[in-house]
Design goal:
The protein is of the alpha+beta class. Helix content is 30%, strand content 33%.
Length: 417
């Protein structure tokens, strides 16, 4: 074979198409590349976050503008009525009519119910008859006395002329005096009968049950046909009341304050009350009095708080939260600040500092502290309302360190349950 034949064998034959690539090999290559990318992302996720410190955080609360009042103590309690009464009849009797319903407003003296007055009416009629008889007796004695006085006067002149004996004259005088005494007795009997009639009339009036004061009916306890009594009689078949009314103008708040904090409370102290049913409604109030007695079992002291705002939404036994406020100070002397958890303040190199979380990093800030308010501290400078601070910052936490907010495991577990 010469050189020209060798060159022909080395020439590429372009008349035959090249073989198609294998699809199986292509998919295998793509799968390997995807697995490598996922592995790289997982390694980055683990190694990239390994330097983040897990911390717990809380939000800083603004105390308000200058010239306001700050809360020095919070407590919970209930709305109570100082004027509430279960109205009952003064006598035992059968209910004839009930004129009240729950939620109805009644005025002082308004009729709430009536009892069967048959017995009371009969007693009143008897007393009226006795009075009439006593008055008739008075008229008869008065007629006899008039005749006796005339006879005594006539015999007096005849006795002076010695036309009648002195014994006849003395007898006429005795009859006259006896009738005078009888008239006084009859008049007194008539007065007693009149008093008896008045008492009997009062008995009739006792069959009418009236409201002792203006208020709102919160319970209706009796129905027509039932027996009511001011005292429990006859077991469970006898009612002791017609209904219960509450004077809504006498509503106030009663809270229990721990003995350790009662020194912060004093009479006339401003208070802000918030009903559990209306959390966005702030009701101005003030301390009425501190009850001078402690509960040994709960180590608390009761405090009475007056509500300065009257509203139909406030009803007895409602739950309420109260904030005892310090007296408002002039704007020139009030220093604006925020309220932060005391656990967020630590000392580093003799300085009070707090760590604020922003963009996943901890920023160290030097703070100026004010008062201690329970588990919180007043921060006069260094923090602003809405800042997120680290609770119990670890010793290794430094300025600029990456942090990761810990999840609330207990809260998640409760939600899952």
């Amino acid at each position: 074979m010469n050189n020209s034949d060798l060159l022909k064998e080395l020439r590429i034959d372009r008349s035959t198409p090249p073989p198609a690539p294998s699809r199986t090999g292509l998919w295998i290559g793509l799968g390997i590349a995807g697995a490598m990318v996922a592995l790289a992302l997982g390694v980055w996720a683990v190694l990239g976050r390994s330097d983040a410190i897990e911390v717990k955080t809380a939000e800083v609360t603004a105390l308000g503008n200058a010239g306001g009042s700050a809360s020095v103590l919070d407590a919970t309690g209930y709305v109570v009525a100082r004027r509430m009464a279960t109205v009952s009849a003064k006598i035992t009797g059968k209910v004839r009519e009930v004129l009240i319903e729950e939620g109805q407003r009644v005025e002082a003296g308004q009729v709430m119910a009536t009892l069967d007055p048959i017995d009371a009416d009969a007693q009143r009629d008897l007393a009226a008859s006795q009075l009439a008889a006593a008055r008739s007796e008075i008229a008869a004695v008065q007629a006899q006395l008039k005749e006796a006085e005339a006879n005594a006067n006539r015999l007096s002149g005849l006795a002076q002329q010695q036309l009648v004996s002195k014994s006849q004259y003395d007898q006429a005088i005795a009859e006259r005096d006896a009738l005078r005494a009888g008239l006084q007795t009859a008049q007194r009997n008539a007065q007693v009968a009149n008093d008896g009639l008045r008492i009997a009339a009062q008995g009739v009036d006792n069959t009418i049950v009236r409201a002792p004061f203006a208020g709102v009916v919160i319970a209706k306890a009796a129905q027509p046909g039932e027996i009511v009594s001011p005292l429990s009689a006859g077991g469970g078949f006898t009612r002791t009341g017609i209904g219960t009314i509450v004077d809504m103008d006498s509503l106030e708040v009663e809270v229990e304050v721990g003995e350790a904090f009662i020194g912060r409370v004093h009479p006339k102290m401003p208070v802000e009350a918030t009903l559990n049913a209306y959390p966005d409604w702030k009701i101005p109030a003030e301390v009425i009095a501190i009850i001078p007695a402690a509960d040994r079992g709960k180590a608390t002291v009761k405090v009475r708080v007056a509500l300065k705002q009257k509203d139909a939404r406030i009803v007895p036994d409602m739950g309420v939260r109260v904030a005892f406020l310090e007296a408002a100070r002039p704007a020139t002397t009030v220093r604006p600040g925020v309220l932060a958890p005391a656990a967020a303040i630590v000392q580093r190199e003799g300085k009070d500092i707090a760590f604020v979380v922003a963009d996943g990093k901890a920023q160290q800030r030097e703070v100026s502290l004010g008062r201690t308010l329970g588990e919180d501290r007043e921060v006069l400078a260094g923090l602003a309302g809405g800042d997120t601070v680290v609770i119990d910052p670890p010793q290794k936490l430094a300025d600029g360190a990456r942090v990761q907010v810990a999840r609330e495991e207990s809260g998640d577990a409760a939600n899952n349950d």
